[in-house]
Each structure stands twice: as C-alpha cells, then as structure tokens.
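User: Just a sanity check before I run the rest of the batch. Below are the structure tokens for the first item. I only need the designed sequence back.
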C-alpha cells in the first residue's frame, strides 16, 4: 500500500455524501445502469438504490469501470419497499419526470437529504412510484428533443446537487459516521483481506498508518 494510494482513499472518503443518493427503478440497460453509478461515484454518493428489473440486475459495462467498487447498490424487488427504505432514513425523493407539477430541477434544495428517482427510458418512472415521491423535476429542453438519455439526465441533476453542496461547504469535512468510515477505509485499502475476514466472521483490525502494512494488516493464506 503506497502513501499515495492511502491518501487518495482518504480524500475520497472525506467527501462522501451519506445523505445524497440516486434510485433506479427497473433500469435494465447495462450502459445506462453503469453510467448512473459512474456519475454517482463522481459526485460523492456513498450508496445507490435499485429496483431490480425483469431478468435481473444488469451487468456492469465498461462505462463504469471500477465505479461499483466505490458506490454500493442496495437492491429491492419492488418500488414501495425501496421508497419506504429511503423515507425511513429521512430522504426526500424527487422523480425525474415530465408532468404539470414538475419543477425545474434547479429549484430543489439538494443540501437536504435527497434521493433522485430515475425510470427507464421507454416507460419512465412508474405511476406507482409517482404516488409516493415528494416531488417531480424536469430539465428544461429548448430544442425538438423532449428528454435526455436517463444517464445524461442523472448527471445533469446530480451535478446541480454537487454544486449546491459545494457552496454549502458539505465537501469540506468528512460526514461519515466514524465506525462506517473505519470499515470502508479498511475495505477500500485492503479488499482481499476484508473479504476473507468477513467470510471468517472476524473483525477488521485497526490500520496503523505510521508502520509498515505488513505489521498492521493480518496476513491471509487464501
């Protein structure tokens, strides 16, 4: 483990936003699914949510190479359960959906706990979900095209959220629970050892940064 690698992991963890997320409702195209996760990682989202489409979860494409390592995905079999899980954690949920009640996506206060809900390109967000969300947002379109690709729309909205949070200083200090930070730091720095310890039911050791890694991380024979 190089000092540069450790510094990079620490810097990324320090900017993770535990109260900003994206929820994909049955997004089935691998390139869209992967691109959404890539943007989620880029703006500091810790974990995403997904309602599993028919046929199962899409495989990650090259678009998100590595992103799935840094942004975990919580999966659900139906939309109400996913929305209930988010609301139980205090999230307000805004669907990217064209309707009469939809507001410009820049009018939402993304400094509050926020989840952006995305549907499929063909069907959009389901009526079932629209009955449960806190609001709907649109991206103004000035041309003949009426909507953007789902992953592009996701990027536009999430970067507005990032802008608001940067202005509010929400990336300036670590916002993760200390125990969660400790766990993720070990898993990100030592993924192989972390997997083996989980399989063995063993706790993670503390990482002592001022000594050689061989002394601070247990050896494994697997």
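Assistant: Here's the designed sequence for the first item:
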């Amino acid at each position: 483990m190089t000092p540069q690698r450790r510094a990079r992991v620490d810097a990324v963890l320090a900017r993770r936003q535990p109260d900003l997320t994206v929820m994909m409702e049955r997004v089935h195209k691998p390139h869209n699914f992967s691109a959404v996760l890539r943007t989620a990682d880029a703006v500091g989202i810790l974990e995403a949510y997904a309602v599993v489409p028919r046929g199962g979860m899409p495989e990650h494409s090259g678009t998100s190479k590595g992103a799935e390592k840094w942004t975990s995905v919580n999966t659900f079999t139906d939309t109400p359960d996913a929305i209930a899980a988010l609301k139980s954690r205090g999230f307000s949920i805004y669907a990217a959906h064209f309707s009469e009640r939809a507001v410009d996506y820049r009018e939402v206060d993304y400094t509050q706990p926020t989840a952006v809900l995305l549907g499929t390109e063909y069907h959009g967000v389901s009526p079932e979900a629209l009955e449960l969300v806190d609001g709907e947002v649109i991206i103004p379109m000035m041309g003949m095209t009426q909507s953007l690709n789902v992953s592009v729309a996701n990027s536009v909205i999430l970067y507005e959220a990032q802008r608001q949070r940067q202005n509010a200083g929400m990336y300036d200090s670590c916002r993760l629970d200390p125990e969660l930070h400790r766990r993720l730091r070990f898993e990100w720095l030592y993924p192989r050892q972390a997997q083996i310890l989980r399989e063995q039911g063993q706790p993670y050791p503390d990482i002592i940064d001022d000594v050689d890694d061989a002394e601070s991380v247990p050896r494994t024979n697997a």
